[in-house]
Amino acid sequence: MATVGAGRDAGQNLCGCCDDAVGGLPTGSDLDLLREGLYGCFGGAFARELVVLSPGSIVLAGNHTDHQGGHAVACAVGSYARGIFRANGEGRIRVGGRGLPAIQLDSADLDARDGGLDDLSAMVCGMVALFLQRGLAPGDALGFDAYLALDEPVGSGLLGESALELAFAQGLNSLWAGGTLSGEELALAALRVARERLGGSSAPMWQLPVALGGIQHLSFADSGGAVAERIDFDFAQEGYNVCLVEVGDGRVTEPASCSSILQEMQAVAGALGAERLGDVREVDFMMDLPVIRDQFGDRAALRAIHFWREDRMVEHRVRALKAKDMHAFLELTRASGASTAMYLQGTPRVARSQAIMLGLAVADENLRHEGAASIHGGSPERAILAFVPDSVYELFSQGMNAIYGEGACRAYEVVDEGASAWWL
Fold this sequence. Notes:
Layout: H1 28-42, E1 50-61, E2 71-87, E3 92-97, E4 103-106, H2 119-133, E5 144-150, H3 161-176, H4 183-197, H5 207-212, E6 215-219, E7 227-231, E8 240-246, H6 257-271, H7 282-287, H8 289-296, H9 298-322, H10 326-344, H11 355-367, E9 372-375, E10 383-389, H12 393-404, E11 409-412, E12 420-423
Parallel strand pairs: 3-5
Antiparallel strand pairs: 1-2, 1-12, 2-5, 2-6, 3-4, 6-7, 8-10, 8-11, 9-10
Helix pairs in contact: 2-3, 2-4, 3-4, 6-9, 8-9, 9-10, 11-12
């Protein structure tokens, strides 16, 4: 398990990683741009500055298994939220950034900020309040300035809210708590803020890979959190690219599709005396299937079946990665894509627009069993996930971009380090 170190000297990191391995740490012109943004928004240099780096994440295996007490595999990738923080001594919380709303908050008025604010303001307020509750914030010097730059828009399905949550969690951890909180603690803090301030209800499938880095096997059997196990596997070394292809046009969506999946799975679990499907034996479900169909309909039954199929396939894929068996991993990924499409049915069902299903079909044609494609669990209405061999990557990328636009297909590097911070 990764932990966050404390007491590092100037110029060294506060994340427990190798001092000379800076990964995506902003340097040179990138650092200059962050400083220019900070100084332009909040005035010139007057306090020591802290640089924060928080990666994006991709779900490699496990589509809608997390909230039902199942398993998933997710990883941190090199698409970052980069930030620069400093104390301002004014009791004001000021945040700016490219593509982000500018916010100014009074640190004495955090309790009144549970509703009515944009998500960024609510998240920042919740994170500061959490550090206060834990006695980790300096009561007389709460004010800070932060300026952030994002490699991709928040909500892209890759650089989601968790990258920002962990950027602020790690920033406050280093600014106020000397970097004493571990990656797991930061992930759970971000999860708590997401649930209490932003209305989220999921398990920490997004926060843990961002906080810990690398490839993580996640078990959600404990409804209060998750157990993370790092998997030592290198897709690049095996000759494969981890790609996301943005295929959804954003104009046609199934209303509340994700919430309907959660509601129907929980309804089936409730009929079988549990809160989550992970606490139900599949054999008991099959015995009661006629009653389930009558009470909740066929779609709810299919979604429950998907959960057990997908959860088993996650465990098999974990074993395949540990054994360096890429062939088995790819076969299971194809089967997962089929289960997601046929049984989970979380993608839009509109006669004239089925971008995800078409994207999956086109990807399969372009790969011709030399790789594998599935529906990305992090963006089920917009993107597909593909594992593409080096030998066909250029042709695959060109073929997908020709249909969905230049830049629709992107390969991402899996990065070993999670959210990190360095004093300048």
